[in-house]
Each structure stands twice: as structure tokens, then as C-alpha cells.
UniProtKB/TrEMBL annotation, chain A:
<keyword id="KW-0804">Transcription</keyword>
<dbReference type="InterPro" id="IPR001789">
    <property type="entry name" value="Sig_transdc_resp-reg_receiver"/>
</dbReference>
<dbReference type="GO" id="GO:0000160">
    <property type="term" value="P:phosphorelay signal transduction system"/>
</dbReference>
<keyword id="KW-0238">DNA-binding</keyword>
<keyword id="KW-0597">Phosphoprotein</keyword>
<feature type="modified residue" description="4-aspartylphosphate">
    <location>
        <position position="52"/>
    </location>
</feature>
<dbReference type="InterPro" id="IPR011006">
    <property type="entry name" value="CheY-like_superfamily"/>
</dbReference>
<keyword id="KW-0902">Two-component regulatory system</keyword>
<feature type="domain" description="Response regulatory">
    <location>
        <begin position="3"/>
        <end position="120"/>
    </location>
</feature>
Automatic annotation (TrEMBL), chain B:
<feature type="transmembrane region" description="Helical">
    <location>
        <begin position="192"/>
        <end position="215"/>
    </location>
</feature>
<feature type="transmembrane region" description="Helical">
    <location>
        <begin position="443"/>
        <end position="461"/>
    </location>
</feature>
<dbReference type="InterPro" id="IPR036890">
    <property type="entry name" value="HATPase_C_sf"/>
</dbReference>
<dbReference type="Pfam" id="PF02518">
    <property type="entry name" value="HATPase_c"/>
</dbReference>
<feature type="transmembrane region" description="Helical">
    <location>
        <begin position="161"/>
        <end position="180"/>
    </location>
</feature>
<feature type="transmembrane region" description="Helical">
    <location>
        <begin position="326"/>
        <end position="351"/>
    </location>
</feature>
<feature type="domain" description="Histidine kinase">
    <location>
        <begin position="679"/>
        <end position="897"/>
    </location>
</feature>
<dbReference type="GO" id="GO:0022857">
    <property type="term" value="F:transmembrane transporter activity"/>
</dbReference>
<dbReference type="InterPro" id="IPR001734">
    <property type="entry name" value="Na/solute_symporter"/>
</dbReference>
Length: 124, 898
């Protein structure tokens, strides 16, 4: 089973996402802020991280930066951004930091699932 | 050293000075050449051979009295600078090129007064130059020991004659390079500055040598001198008469620093900018002080070693020679030579300008000049000046040949000072008293000169040249009251000061009395008015319409062309027409044009001749003093108009900058608004995302357990409420900001309101283990909108909650009152407010980057809403910027009824 780390500070959004991903046979782990996300990612080495940007303490960009600099994570983990930030510059920044996809909030659950499965199946 | 070698050395040295002068003339604008220190150093032309050799001689003979010559300028330096500023201002406006020009201009451009002043200056300068030549010749003899080479006493074989000749060539070439005598002689002045450095350095070297190498420091000399010499005699001011003598001597040197033509040349004519004065005010006195540090020690040392006062003038040479330090003696000789050259060059340049502009041209050449062609004129004038430089040096040489070798340097120098001091009343009083007249000035100067002649020159000549003492001792015709050194029984003073006292007393008396008794003509009074009110004149320039009459532009133009040359005259005319926007077709010359032309000509031929030239072609009508005063008054008005214009433009500048900052402010607001919209969008999207995700889950999954379904539905409801609250907040703020919201004022207890707010947030605080302290003791009644103030306190408290860390956070609330107002302070130990954000935080849309965890709903308005509410209560809210840690918000509400 593929491991997915879900990072967001909004409990209601996490609840809906967690439910849907589990139903689609992914193993789901949850972090509520950037700090927690980094710790968990290093411990679990997930296949995919679904990451929000606007979070307290450590934001999504910093998490991306960290994932990119970590040897093991760099090789094994892909990232999908889900964010309410709409500006093209924000999207570009995230992609430059190594995110594989950027899905704007409010997102469609179907689209998110498609992106996730696509990324995980094509993984070398 | 042999005479030939020494002469060769002198040639090399002069050659170097020529090169330096050339270099400076070529590099006029360079930093080095135009440095203010160069000007300050050129003032040190004051220190001639008299200083260089003579002060040691004086110190050996009469003790500390030599200091008076330097104390005058040093003590008076501040006053000197103030007066000099006025003199310079006037001189620049009227293109004054010498002190004779200055004085004659003050008394209505009087031709005869200019000539008289010139003669006085010549009488002062020429013996002074002789003195320099005497010094050169004697030191030359001392330093050259061998009898090889030329020998003898006829003019042809006398080395002094050649030195005089070389000096004459040097001075006449460089000093008269430009036609306009009021122009700067950069090359000459720069080489003078270099020489000032050299003479001081060499003098200090010999001073150090005598004090520290020959003797064992200053105290050693003092100890030995105490045993070997009559120190009491040499180191005190000898009683009352000594004190009075000191007073007069200091006064004499103070006058000399203004009036000596070479000082006027260096300080006024060569002046270019204000910085030079600023530097000179400390630099020049310092220079003089340095020059005098070792004088007394060299004098004592010389007497101890050589035991002979008669050659005390040359101790600086004789001491090194005694110890066979030839190189040092030669250095000293070169220093003395520098002092001589600078003095001779500047003095003769100044003198030649006066002789040509105030004596020769106005009295002899003016007719010839008006008839011949322009380029010839320029040449003729230059040649006249060169001839003057040349002949004054040669005349000085002849005078030198007459001098008895026993006469000391100091006493000849004093003659020079004494003569030049006769210009003092006309010069100084004239600048501050508008009544002073040309007649008073002329009679005063002549009377002063006669007294000097009788009380000093005559006995000086009978004693030193004719070797007869009867005149000095018994008085004229044997009458006691007419003793030249004790006129009318005044015998308290030494001869110089005695002469100074009587001559200046009668000179000033005659000047004052005649000026009061007989009124001068209109020109004199007009110029008097302008010199006294010099600040106004400086503003006036060509606008001074102090001329009335009839003249044609063409005539004046012809004169200009004749004296300045075609190109220069045309250029000047163009400048004039452009500056005053005068129609080139205008045939009649107006006062501005007359003034302008007269000043141009003044530079070339001096003020007296310029006046003659202009009056030849212009019919001048007398201008009354009333008219002059009116002009000065009008000018004052112009100045005040200018001032108000300046104020207006200052106002405009301020307005522009205000607009700029307002614009900046708007830009910042705009930026904040953009950021806010981003935040609002984000805040709105977060619940919407949640609602959308939950709804999708619900629609996709039919077999979801009931409880879970309920949970998702609850989430949707919760997020909807959150959306609603957010929108309400935005609307609230907008309502208050646009003034559509009204307060619902009631009389309530403020402490209860605060307690309610604390209770409202207590559950969150408890969950995060944050301590909230409020001593709810005193009941404070006030008139306010309860729900709105509750909102303020809740906002501030939630803010603090956001910025303190969990478990360690502490929030203190204080409530105080005085007769005027109620103060509420909410202090926390959180991250504090970033520096520079203290005003920003109260703006709408502001969001700090320091937040520790996700803000609750509606953030970005919290403080803005607080500020609106408090302001509606006529109170104020601000954050204390003086804290090192944490933040403190202070709310003040007025006590009066709303």
C-alpha cells in the first residue's frame, strides 16, 4: 500500500481528504503543521505528501525545501500542493521548489485523486 | 661655501620657485592649488626676513618685546576675520585691486587721495624692501666664507644687486601677467605658500637644533641663562611704561596686518572663497605662534655661546656656523631667502598696481591711453606695472646702499609699520562712519606723516646716517618741548610708540574735525553710505543706480574696447545685456551700464582712472544722498521680496514633499489592501474548500455510516457559520469606517466589561495553559458602548493569545484612572511587535508575520476595528514601543461625558 502524508491545519478539510484517500486504498498519515510534517516525513518516508502552504510556524514552502534537501526523501517522495494561494507566482515558487503538482483550493476531490494515482503509478 | 657656489645655489632655488609658480598657474583649478590652506599660508607673507632674523635680534636685546609684532595679529584674529569679511565684500563688488583703491573709492573715488595713499605705501614699502636686501646681503656674507669669486663693493660686483635684479624679474613677470589687477595671481601666491612652509620648517629646524642639540632642552637654556644673563631684563614687561609700550606695539602690529599693502594683496585681492577665511582664522595665528616658539631660546643660546649682542640678528646662522654645521646654516639662509622673496614679490606687485593705477595712469598716461589702440594699451599698462616693480626694487637697493650697517632689522621694520599706520583712521573709521570726508582723510594722513617724519625719521637719520645726536637729545632749536622722542614732555614711550601715539592722535583728530566741519561732496557721501552699509551694497551690484546723467552706449563701448580689447569688451557687453535683458539697440546708457563699465575699467586701470575715463564721455549730474538712501532702501525691499519668493518656493517644496509622502502612503495602503484581499480570499476559501470537500464525500459515498455522515454535515454547518462571521466582520469595519455606525452609550462599569472579555477567552487560554491576570478590585464607572468596548478587549486579548507561546504565556490586564482619563493596559510576554510596525498594526488589512499559530476568524481587522471603536469614544489606542520583550497595548478613554 502506498503511503501518503496529509498536511493541513484545517481539521475539516483533513477529515474529508483522509476519508476519501483511505477508501481508495492508500495508507494515510496526518500532520497539522509544517514542523510535524517534516518530522513525520523523515520517519515514514512516504510515497507522496499532500501539502498545504499557509500554515503556522513552518509553512509549506519550507517543508518543500526540507524535503528536497533530505537525501532519502529526495529520492522516494513526491509532493502535491493544495493551497488557497491563487497567484501564478505562488504556483511557480512551489513548482520550483520541487512540487509535482499544484491544486488550488477549493479543489475537486476527483481531480485530486486522479493526480495522486497518476503520480504514484508513474513512479519509477 | 664659496660665493660662486652660493650664488649658484640661489639660482637653483629661484629656478625651483619659478617652476612651482608655473606649475600652479597651469593647474589653477586643481585641489592642491586652490586649497584654503594655500591662502592661509600666503598670509604668512607677514613673516619677512624681519621676523626670520630680526625677532631673534630683538629678543636678545630687548627681551620678550619682539612678541608684540605677532601678538597683534594673534589676539586680533577673530576681529580681523570679521573686518576682513567686510573689506573683501566691498573689494570684490568694486573690483578693488589695492589699499589705495580701497581708500580712494571710499572717499568718492578721489584721485588725489589715491595718489597720496600710494605715496604713503611706497614710503612704507621701499625701506622695507631695503631691509630685506640688507638681510640677504649680510647673511650672504656670513654664509659665504671663502673669498673666491667676485669681490668688492661696487654695484657691478655686489651680489646683492644681482639678487635684487633676479627678484625684480621674477616679480615683474608673474605679478603682472593679467591686465586686470583685481584678478588672482595663482602662480605667485602658490609659490608664496610653498615658501611660507619652507621658512617655517627651516626656522623650526634651527630652533630644535639650538634647543635640543646644542643645549639640553628648554630648561637647560633657562638655567644657564639665569646664571649668565640678566634674565629679569629679558623676560619681563618692565613696569608701567613697559606695559603701555606693549599696548602700543600690539596695536601697531594689529593695524599693520590690515594696512600693509602685501597683506591687503594676499588677504583681500587674492581671496577667492569663504572656506579660506574659515581656515585662516585658526591656521594663521597657529603659524605665527609656531614661528615664535624657539625665538627666545635661540636668542639666549646665542648670547651664551657667542656672548655678543651686536650680531644677534643672525644668531640663527652664527650658532650652526660656530659648531661648523654648514648644511644647517645654508638651510637657514634659504629659509631667510624664502622670507625675503615672498615679501618682496608681493609687496612690489601691490605697489606697482597702486603706482600705475593711482598715480601714473591718472596723472600722466590717461590722455595717451585714450587715444591709442587697445592691444597697445594693454601692453602699455603692463609695461608701466613692470617698470614700477622693477624700479621700486632698484630704489630699495639704492636705499640699502645708503644704510649704516649698524642699523638693526627691527628698527627699519618699525618705520615701515609706523608709516603705514597713518592710513588707519581713513581706512577703519571710514568703513563705519559715513561722515568721513576726503579732505579730512588727506589732511590727517599728511599731518600724521609729518609727525612721523619729525618724531622718528628725522632723528633716525641724524643718528644713524649723519651720526649726530644733538637733535634727538636737545630737540628742535634746543627747545625741550620739541624733543623728537619726547614731544611736549611725553617721555613714557619708546621712540616708535611715541611717534605712533602723536601721529595717530593728530591724524585721527584732523580727520574727525575736518570731516565734521566741512561736508564732503555728493560722491564722497554716497560712497560713504555704501561702505558703511556694505551688506546692502553686496546685494546691489549693478542694480545700484547711484549715477545720474547722460551718456551714449557707443562712447562707453569704445572706451571698453580700447582698454580691454575687442574680444573681452564684446564678451562683457553680451554678459551685461543677457543678465539685465537690455535691448542691444538702446542708445542711451543707464546707470547700471555706467556702473558695470566703470567696474570693468577699475580692474584694468584703477578706480580713479576709470572714473576719469567714464566722465570724459558721460555728463554726470549730482546724486543727492536722499537718492542713495532711497536706492539702498529699495534694495532692501527687493531683498524682502526675494525673501518672500524664497519662502514661497520653500512652501512649494514642502508641499511637493507632502504630496510625495501622501502618495507613498496611498501606495502603501494600496499594497496593504492587495494583501488584505489575498488574505480575505484565503480566509473565505478555507471554509469553502472544507464545505466542498465534505459535500463531495457525501455525494460520492452512499453507504457511509450514519454517524460519520452526521459529522461531515456538522462540519459543513460549522464552516458556513465561520463564513458568515467573517463576512459580518468585514461589513462591521466598513460600517464604522464610513461613519454609518453609531455608539450605544450607557453608563456602566468598565472593569466588568474587561472581566467579561477575559471570561470570553478563558476557555482558549486554559486549553493552551496561558495565564491571564486581572485584579478586578476597583469599580470604575464610565460612559461607553458596552458591546463595542467588549469587542475591543476581546480583540486585544485574542491578539495577545495569538502571540504568546503555549504553556509559558502570560497576559496582564491593568485598569487605572485619574481625573482626566481611564487607562487600560494589556501586556503579554509574547513575540512583541516588529520594530517599524507600531503604526502599521492599526491599519486595516495588516497582518503580522510573527504569529505563532493560525489566526482565528476575521484576523487582519482586529486592531483596525479596535482603533475605530476607541476613536469613536474620543479615546486613543497605541502600542508601547519602549518594551524589550512582549507587547503592551494601551487604551485611554476620556472621562468627560460623551
Amino acid at each position: 500500500m502506498k503511503k501518503i502524508l496529509l498536511v493541513d491545519d484545517e481539521p475539516n478539510i483533513i477529515m474529508a481528504l483522509e476519508y476519501t484517500l483511505r477508501k481508495n486504498d492508500y495508507e494515510v498519515f496526518i500532520a497539522r503543521d509544517g514542523e510535524e510534517a517534516i518530522a513525520l516525513a523523515e520517519k515514514l518516508l512516504p510515497d507522496l505528501v499532500i501539502l498545504d502552504i499557509m500554515m503556522p510556524k513552518v509553512d509549506g514552502y519550507e517543508v518543500l525545501q526540507h524535503l528536497r534537501e533530505h537525501n532519502a526523501l529526495k529520492a522516494s517522495t513526491q509532493t502535491v500542493i493544495i493551497s488557497a494561494k491563487q497567484k501564478e507566482s505562488d504556483v511557480q515558487k512551489a513548482l520550483n521548489l520541487g512540487a509535482k503538482a499544484y491544486i488550488k483550493k477549493p479543489f475537486s476531490m476527483k481531480k485530486l485523486l486522479n493526480t495522486v494515482s497518476e503520480l504514484l503509478n508513474h513512479k519509477p | 661655501m664659496s660665493k660662486t657656489a652660493l650664488i649658484a645655489l640661489i639660482f637653483v632655488y629661484l629656478g625651483i620657485l619659478f617652476l612651482i609658480a608655473f606649475f600652479a598657474e597651469k593647474n589653477k583649478g586643481s585641489k592642491l592649488v586652490s586649497h584654503p590652506v594655500v591662502y592661509a599660508l600666503s598670509l604668512a607673507v607677514y613673516c619677512s626676513a624681519w621676523t626670520y632674523y630680526g625677532s631673534v635680534g630683538m629678543a636678545a636685546k630687548s627681551g620678550v618685546e619682539f612678541l608684540t609684532i605677532y601678538l597683534g595679529p594673534i589676539i586680533a584674529a577673530p576681529l580681523w576675520i570679521v573686518l576682513l569679511k567686510k573689506i573683501i565684500q566691498l573689494s570684490k563688488v568694486y573690483k578693488v585691486s589695492s589699499i589705495a583703491d580701497f581708500i580712494s573709492l571710499r572717499y568718492g573715488n578721489s584721485r588725489s587721495l589715491g595718489a597720496l595713499v600710494t605715496l604713503v605705501c611706497a614710503a612704507s614699502i621701499i625701506p622695507y624692501i631695503s631691509l630685506q636686501l640688507k638681510a640677504i646681503s649680510e647673511t650672504f656674507e656670513i654664509v659665504s666664507t671663502s673669498s673666491l669669486g667676485i669681490e668688492g663693493s661696487s654695484v657691478i660686483t655686489d651680489s646683492t644687486f644681482y639678487i635684487a635684479l633676479i627678484l625684480a624679474i621674477f616679480a615683474s613677470f608673474f605679478g603682472t601677467l593679467a591686465l586686470d589687477a583685481s584678478k588672482h595671481r595663482t602662480g605667485v601666491m602658490f609659490s608664496i605658500a610653498v615658501e611660507s612652509v619652507l621658512k617655517l620648517s627651516f626656522f623650526l629646524i634651527v630652533g630644535v637644533y639650538v634647543t635640543y642639540f646644542v643645549f639640553d632642552g628648554t630648561s637647560d637654556i633657562y638655567k644657564q641663562a639665569k646664571l649668565g644673563l640678566d634674565l629679569n631684563e629679558l623676560s619681563t614687561i618692565k613696569g608701567l611704561s613697559g606695559g603701555i609700550n606693549w599696548y602700543f606695539s600690539v596695536a601697531l602690529s594689529f593695524l599693520a596686518i590690515f594696512l600693509l599693502p602685501r597683506q591687503f594683496q594676499a588677504s583681500v585681492v587674492e581671496f577667492t572663497n569663504r572656506k579660506q577665511l574659515k581656515t585662516s582664522i585658526w591656521f594663521f595665528p597657529l603659524y605665527l605662534l609656531l614661528f615664535n616658539v624657539f625665538v627666545i631660546f635661540i636668542a639666549w643660546g646665542g648670547m651664551l655661546i657667542l656672548g655678543d649682542q651686536s650680531k644677534a640678528d643672525y644668531f640663527t646662522l652664527l650658532i650652526p656656523l660656530y659648531f661648523e654645521e654648514y648644511w644647517l646654516a645654508i638651510l637657514v639662509f634659504l629659509g631667510g631667502l624664502s622670507a625675503v622673496i615672498s615679501m618682496v614679490v608681493v609687496s612690489t606687485v601691490a605697489l606697482s598696481t597702486m603706482l600705475s593705477n593711482n598715480l601714473i595712469i591718472p596723472y600722466g598716461f590717461i590722455k595717451n591711453l585714450t587715444q591709442s589702440k587697445s592691444f597697445k594699451n594693454e601692453k602699455t599698462i603692463k609695461n608701466i606695472r613692470r617698470l614700477c616693480v622693477f624700479s621700486s626694487i632698484i630704489l630699495a637697493y639704492l636705499l640699502y646702499a645708503l644704510f649704516d650697517p649698524k642699523v638693526s632689522l627691527f628698527s627699519i621694520g618699525l618705520i615701515s609699520f609706523l608709516i603705514i599706520a597713518q592710513l588707519a583712521p581713513s581706512f577703519f573709521i571710514g568703513m563705519f562712519w559715513n561722515r568721513g570726508s576726503a579732505l579730512g582723510s588727506k589732511v590727517g594722513i599728511i599731518l600724521g606723516m609729518l609727525i612721523v617724519g619729525f618724531t622718528y625719521l628725522l632723528p633716525f637719520i641724524t643718528e644713524n646716517v649723519l651720526s649726530q645726536n644733538s637733535f634727538a637729545e636737545q630737540g628742535l632749536y634746543g627747545i625741550d618741548l620739541l624733543k623728537p622722542y619726547a614731544l611736549f614732555g611725553v617721555d613714557l614711550l619708546n621712540p616708535v610708540n611715541h611717534a605712533l601715539y602723536w601721529s595717530l592722535l593728530l591724524n585721527t583728530g584732523a580727520y574727525l574735525v575736518l570731516s565734521v566741519v566741512k561736508k564732503g561732496n555728493y560722491r564722497e557721501r554716497n560712497y560713504g553710505e555704501m561702505f558703511v552699509n556694505s551688506e546692502k551694497v553686496v546685494e546691489l551690484k549693478e542694480n545700484a543706480y547711484v549715477w545720474k546723467g547722460e551718456a551714449y552706449v557707443e562712447d562707453i563701448q569704445n572706451i571698453l574696447i580700447r582698454f580691454l580689447g575687442e574680444a573681452k569688451a564684446k564678451k562683457a557687453l553680451n554678459v551685461f545685456r543677457k543678465r539685465y535683458q537690455v535691448n542691444p539697440e538702446e542708445k542711451l546708457a543707464d546707470a547700471r551700464f555706467i556702473n558695470f563699465s566703470e567696474r570693468l575699467l577699475t580692474g584694468a586701470v584703477g578706480s580713479a582712472s576709470a572714473k576719469i575715463l567714464i566722465s570724459n564721455v558721460a555728463k554726470e549730474k549730482p546724486v543727492s544722498l536722499v537718492e542713495v538712501l532711497k536706492i539702498l532702501e529699495e534694495n532692501k525691499e527687493t531683498i524682502s521680496v526675494n525673501k518672500s519668493l524664497e519662502e514661497q518656493s520653500q512652501k512649494l517644496i514642502k508641499l511637493t514633499s507632502d504630496l510625495k509622502s501622501a502618495n507613498e502612503e496611498l501606495k502603501l495602503q494600496d499594497q496593504l489592501k492587495d494583501d488584505f484581499l489575498d488574505t480575505v480570499a484565503h480566509e473565505l476559501k478555507t471554509p469553502i474548500t472544507s464545505i466542498k470537500a465534505s459535500s463531495e464525500v457525501l455525494t460520492e459515498d452512499d453507504d457511509m455510516p450514519f454517524e460519520l455522515r452526521q459529522k461531515f454535515l456538522n462540519n459543513i454547518i460549522q464552516d458556513t457559520e465561520r463564513l458568515n462571521a467573517l463576512i459580518n466582520d468585514i461589513l462591521d469595519l466598513e460600517k464604522m469606517a464610513s461613519g454609518r455606525d453609531e455608539l450605544n452609550i450607557t453608563s456602566e462599569a468598565l472593569n466588568t466589561c474587561i472581566q467579561d472579555a477575559i471570561d470570553g477567552i478563558s476557555s482558549i487560554a486554559e486549553r493552551k495553559h496561558i495565564e491571564v491576570n486581572f485584579e478586578n478590585k476597583t469599580q470604575i464607572e464610565a460612559e461607553f458602548d458596552y458591546s463595542k468596548m467588549l469587542q475591543v478587549f476581546t480583540n486585544l486579548l485574542s491578539n495577545s493569545l495569538k502571540f504568546v507561546s503555549e504553556n509559558e504565556g502570560r497576559i496582564e490586564v491593568l485598569l487605572e484612572e485619574n481625573s482626566e482619563e481611564i487607562t487600560i493596559k494589556i501586556r503579554d510576554n509574547g513575540k512583541g511587535i516588529p520594530e517599524g510596525d507600531f503604526d502599521l498594526i492599526f491599519k486595516k488589512f495588516y497582518q503580522s508575520k510573527n504569529q505563532t499559530f493560525k489566526k482565528p476568524v476575521g484576523s487582519g481587522f482586529g486592531l483596525a476595528i479596535c482603533k475605530q471603536i476607541v476613536q469613536m469614544h474620543c479615546g486613543e489606542i497605541y502600542a508601547d514601543p519602549g518594551l524589550e520583550t512582549g507587547a503592551e497595548f494601551i487604551v485611554k478613554l476620556p472621562k468627560r461625558k460623551l
